[in-house]
Amino acid sequence: MESKVCVTGAAGYLGSSLVKRLLEKGHIVHATTRNLGDAYKVGLLKSLPNAETRLRLYEADIYNPSEFQAAIEGCQFVVHMATPLQHLPQISQFKDTTEAAVAGVESIVECCITSGTVKRLIYTASVVAS
Q1: At 81, which CATH number?
Q2: Which one of 53, 79, 101, 122 has the lowest number of neighbouring Cβ atoms within 10 Å?
Q3: What is the Cα–Cα distance from 1 to 3, expressed in whole angstroms?
Q4: What is the tally of structural domains in the chain?
Q5: How far apart are alpha carbons 52 and 56 in whole angstroms?
Q6: Burial group, residue 110, by CB count within 10 angstroms (0-12, 13-18, 19+)
Q7: What are the tens digits of pLDDT across the range 55-65?
């Protein structure tokens, strides 16, 4: 059964592995990455099987969580793997990576609710969030 799945943090090791598997199974994948200008990471995602017809790429940064709304719209499932990696308190609205990670999860949940289509949210935390 074909479904739309949003994967945040899709260019990471686990994220790209999940995107590959979802594409192989015939799902449409909305994949987010911090920077669509990163030729290496974007190239990796675009080279995956079925990417040409089933992969949609979105630029979204966990430090600006509202940027995820467009990627989540229309999806039945969201797998949230994005995490803040480099925290610079002097330019961030968050005091540390934990606060940024928690705010990111809260915003992703809000985006899922707002979409009206998301049936399930799967969240994978990293050591950064602990």
Answers
A1: 3.40.50.720
A2: 53
A3: 6
A4: 1
A5: 9
A6: middle
A7: 999 999 887 87
- Other Cβ atoms less than 10 A from the Cβ of 75: the count is 26
Q: What is the mean pLDDT of residues 14-18?
A: 95
Q: What angle do CA 31, 36, 37 make, to 5 degrees?
A: 160
Q: Residue 27: which residues within 8 A CB-CB, separation 6 or more?
A: 2, 3, 4, 5, 54
Domain holding 72, by residue range, is 4-129
pLDDT of 128 above 60: no
C-alpha–C-alpha distance, residues 80 and 15, integer Å: 9
Cβ contact 49:24 at 8 Å: yes
